From TrEMBL:
Family: Belongs to the DEAD box helicase family.
Organism taxonomic ancestry: Eukaryota, Fungi, Dikarya, Ascomycota, Pezizomycotina
Principal subcellular localisation of the protein: nucleus
Protein's recorded name: ATP-dependent RNA helicase
Subcellular location: Nucleus, Nucleolus
Compositionally skewed regions (Basic and acidic residues) per UniProt: 525-558
UniProt organism field: Parathielavia appendiculata
Pfam families to which the protein is assigned, alphabetical: DEAD (PF00270), Helicase_C (PF00271)
Residue segments, region Disordered: 493-558
EC number: 3.6.4.13
Length: 558
């Protein structure tokens, strides 16, 4: 049948336009009909045009760029397979690996084979580099940092002499201020578009206006723009109901998260959920509370964590396990916020606000993939509700605090307290530092002055079960731009005194509860040594702002 019940066109229609090897691989993978974005791309009069493609999360953009790119390579007579013909750039290692897996499936029927190589940080550089130099990397999927590293070697640079196609997956991320310098550096090292005439393709679910001026880096001025999203439509998945559960104060966040997960598990014993946290350390803390040491997770649900502070081996194993499991909870930072295709996610929970507006769309998009259903909820403290108010275009329903018939059956507050008691202080302190940096990076959006940032972070620390305000090194405080801000406890100096929280100098009062005394209700830890300035400094950099993704900024400056 050429068209299925949903009006989708069969891949068989592309006989003659796509090589039989590709059609055969599609059939073997069970892909019989095109998704709308695949149809729009593959039915272009020419598959060799530069294009900017926007389609919602989970709608098959990976095949939509791989198929035309592979077709292009397979059409070349006597293709030199020892040179890179197709370069795909992605923002995270896990996404790069996922693209390699998808590509390998599509080229499985090619003879001679089309090898797809990977170049990502955290993996064995020498092993992959030797393979890249000695074998036939007709396709390379890379994250920017490691690719820049490769390109410092002449032999590796020469491998790009016959480049024919460059794809940016998650293009808006690849072209933003964090990655653009690295991308520029890469493009300076490979044959120029003008000289080599390579095809450029940019794909993403979100295309903010800011990236327009960066597009000429990879797309010619006559590029085609394809969108499966109406101009005035928000790119979230309509099959995913989205709710916010406001909580009375930061202290209620963790108990509410416990109630939400317990009730979801009661409704669906095989619950598979991703819980997005503000920072890598925040994800680590919640993983401890709900799984590793605290065991607050509903029984019989395996618990996973995924964040940039884990070793690459742990990250790779976790992705494989969470892809394979039919149930479980994944506590994650934004390292898996974009592009990752974990099958059959029932629920996405966002604990706190995302670092950027568009990141909301990508996080929600981990569920409701390939036309399936799912739910997305946010748990927000009063200080975080600005996110919902300032983004009215998102279909986020506010029906008040979490209210489920079974919620009262779980003593969530007591369970969280007891779980927190088992979590190492250091884990809680690190989560505090991460949160402090995160709130500071979004200070204007929160409508806070620095003292308000510290006051809010200190209340978070208490909700995390810190027994006192964690001590920061003077260097870290300086790096965060918080020198002299009241409410901090600084190594060798103790509590920085100042106006009480809630006063004008501390920023607009967001919480009606009175201050907890001069130290927010904590005892001070004057004289206690932090775990080392360098670690704190690095942590602040990676744990704030766009956390969890490839640390390309650092590498780009090399
Ligand atoms: N033609 C198809 N028929 C059925 N399933 C498909 C088809 N194309 C892709 N899929 C499946 O849809 C899921 C989502 O695909 P993919 O990861 O490419 O989405 P995406 O649009 O890139 O999402 P994101 O924006 O989150 O990166 C995958 O599991 C993929 O195997």
């Amino acid at each position: 049948m050429a068209v299925d019940d949903g009006g989708r066109v069969a891949y068989a229609q592309l006989t003659g336009k796509l090589k039989p090897q590709l059609l055969q691989a599609l059939e073997s993978s069970g892909f019989t009909h095109m998704t709308p974005v695949q149809e729009k791309v593959l039915q272009l009069p020419s598959l060799t045009q530069d294009c900017l493609v926007q389609a919602k999360t989970g709608t098959g953009k990976t095949l939509a760029f791989l198929l035309p790119a592979l077709q292009k390579l397979l059409e070349v007579k006597d293709l030199d397979r020892s040179s890179v013909g197709l370069l795909v750039l992605a923002p995270t290692r896990e996404l790069a690996q996922q693209i390699v897996d998808e590509c390998d499936k599509l080229t499985s029927a090619c003879n001679p084979p089309l090898e797809c190589h990977i170049a990502v940080g955290g993996s064995k550089r020498k092993f992959h580099m030797d393979k890249f130099l000695k074998k036939s990397p007709a396709i390379l999927v890379a994250t920017p940092g490691r690719l820049i590293d490769y390109l410092t070697e002449d032999a590796a640079r020469q491998k790009f002499a016959k480049i024919r196609c460059v794809v940016l997956d998650e293009a808006d991320r690849m072209l933003d201020a964090g990655f653009a310098p690295a991308l520029r550096q890469i493009l300076e090292q490979i044959p120029s578009k003008a000289q080599a005439g390579w095809q450029g393709m940019c794909f993403s679910a979100t295309v903010p206006p800011e990236i327009q001026k960066m597009l000429p880096m990879v797309l010619n001025k006559d590029h085609v723009r394809i969108s499966t999203i109406d101009e005035n439509e928000v790119p979230t998945v309509e099959t995913v109901p989205q709710r916010v559960y406001p909580v009375p104060s930061v202290d209620d966040i963790l108990p509410t998260l416990h109630s939400v997960l317990s009730c979801a598990k009661a409704d669906n014993p095989a619950l598979k959920a991703v819980i997005f946290c503000s920072t890598a350390r925040h994800a680590g803390l919640l993983y401890h509370i709900f799984g590793h040491s605290g065991e607050a997770a509903p029984p019989k649900l395996p618990v996973f964590q995924m964040q940039s502070r884990m070793s690459q081996t742990q990250r790779t194993r976790t992705v494989e396990e969470f892809k394979a499991t039919d149930r479980g909870l994944l506590f994650a930072s934004d390292v898996v916020g974009r592009g990752m295709d974990f099958p059959d996610i029932d629920l996405v929970v966002q604990v706190g606000v995302p670092s950027e507006k568009d990141q909301y769309v990508h996080r929600v998009g981990r569920t409701g993939r390939a036309g399936k259903g799912g739910k997305a909820v946010m748990i927000l403290a009063p200080e975080e509700m600005w996110f919902v108010k300032s983004n009215p275009e998102f279909p986020i329903k506010n029906e008040g605090p979490f209210n489920h018939p079974k919620a009262a059956t779980y003593p969530s507050a007591a369970i969280i307290q007891s779980a927190l008691a088992k979590v190492p202080q250091q884990t809680k302190e690190q989560a505090y530092i991460g949160n402090l940096g995160f709130i500071k990076s979004l200070m204007k959006r929160y409508g806070l002055h620095p003292a308000g940032v510290v006051e809010l972070a200190n209340r978070f620390a208490q909700s995390f079960g810190c027994d006192s305000i964690p001590v920061l090194s003077p260097m870290l405080v300086g790096k965060m731009g918080l020198r002299g801000v009241p409410g901090l406890v600084v190594e060798g100096k103790g509590l920085v005194a100042g106006p009480p929280p809630g006063s004008d100098a501390a920023g607009p009062p967001r919480d009606k509860r009175g201050p907890r005394g001069k130290n927010g209700g904590f005892r001070t830890t004057e004289g206690r040594r932090p775990d080392g300035p360098r670690r704190r400094q690095n942590q602040a950099r990676e744990d704030s702002g766009k956390q969890g993704e490839e640390p390309s900024r650092k590498r780009a400056k090399r």
